[in-house]
Amino acid sequence: MSSVRSSLWQGIAAIALLGTLALGQASAQTAPAAAPAADATAAAPADAAPAAAMTTAESNAAAMAGANKAGDETVVVENPYGLEALWRTGDFVAKGILVTLVIMSMGSWFILVTRLWDQEVLFKHAKTAGTGFWSAANLKEGMTKLEKNSAFRAIVEDGLKSAEHHEGKLTDQIALNEWVTMSLQRSTNDVSSVLQKGLSFLAAVASSSPFVGLLGTVWGIYHALVAIGIAGQASIDKVAGPVGEALIMTAIGLAVAIPAVLGYNWLVSRNKLALEIIRNFAADVHAVILSGNKKVAQR
Q: At what angle do helices 176-195 and 151-164 cross, to 10 degrees?
């Protein structure tokens, strides 16, 4: 019996020992499983914070990109009171005044440029006549040294023709001196007419274009008064268009007149110098022709 009891107690002790070991292993396995869960729970806010930060950064970047795009897309507002609007909304009177001023401006600039070119050519030919012509043995030889389109060559040629063909019943009644003088005077007048061609138009533009612009100004003010009368009040949006039209017409009239005035005075002063050179050259040729031997005086 004692051996049975001891065996029984030994079996119970072994079972208790096995149970204790089993419970220890279960506890050990449960603890690591709970630890990762706790770690995951603790790590969740840490991971959520960068995610939230990234979301905020992306939102700010998108907002900045949208702002930059809005800044790049410049909104172009059409000027309702400019020259284009004047042409589009103006009546036939305003358009006619504008076209007239444009034509006057184009004509004045064309005359200014062409007459200035003619003067420069004449001064260039004057230098040739002052150097090569007077070193020739006679007038015919000197004439060959001048340019074919030179006004100085035309004067010499007309003088020689008048001296060589002073014959006939009518021309015999005129003295050779007077005949040559008239021939050279006609040549000088031809040069003067070429230099003064278009200057009358330039003077007309200079004197009349401000008044043409003033006509457009009066017409614009008239439209402003009509707009005030129709609206019943002098609001800026009612009178801005007509007043802008009036100011544009005034500015264009002055822009046409000022270059015309300055150009006219400049061309006239240069013409006086050019004609003085031409008349002096014609007087020298006249003196050589009447010298009898038609030799060029040494200078």
A: 160
